[in-house]
Amino acid sequence: MKTTRLYLIRHGQVVNHHEFRYNGHFDVDITDIGVLQMENIAAYLSKEPITAVYSSDLQRATKGAEIIGGALGLKPVKIHAFRELHLGRWEGLTREEGAAQFPEEADFRFRDLAYTRVQGGENLHDLKQRVIPALEKILSKHKGEHLTLIAHGGVNRVILCDAMGLPMENFFRIEQDYGCLNVIDYFDDGVKVVKLLNGGPNQELNIAKIY
Known about the structure:
Radius of gyration: 17 Å
Order of helices and strands: EHEHEHHEHEEH
Largest sheet: 6 strands, mixed
CATH topology: Rossmann fold
Number of strands: 6
Helix content: 25-40%
CATH architecture: 3-Layer(aba) Sandwich
Shape: globular
Number of domains: 1
Low-confidence stretches: none
CATH superfamily: Phosphoglycerate mutase-like
């Protein structure tokens, strides 16, 4: 039985991480620490038989893909469908700024995103409907191989919920730290097994210094 292994990575620390902004499709860069996190992942994966590197097309993911792809001798492929959850008119804002600019949505809770959305944005089911088909396409293309995807906290949670058979209501019960690594095995008979969750070399760093 063939097994396809996915190394699923969250991008490195973003430049506005300390501001707690809803970045969504807002295109922000990663910090020097974020670069270090991606270099750590690249070194960690350098001995694995990885045949392909994919990423979201937002720069916080593509920069990590370039670092990892460079270490593996592979050219990363950018896929628009792996962008983070679109947060509509709250994109780039903090909670306080969003509530002040759009008082009619001041009571909105992001933990309710399985059922609702901000104006112009997506809910979790919308996100799943664009992420999972794109994932299935690359898994089918690389059946029996090992591949890497550098994406976002929301995208990763959707993929992990799908792998574990969890409803989207469990989305926020899964942590995805900057630079974390998840490993998922996909079997020919349809079974999916999460081998590693929110782990990898960056978990050994001092969290206080990163966040």
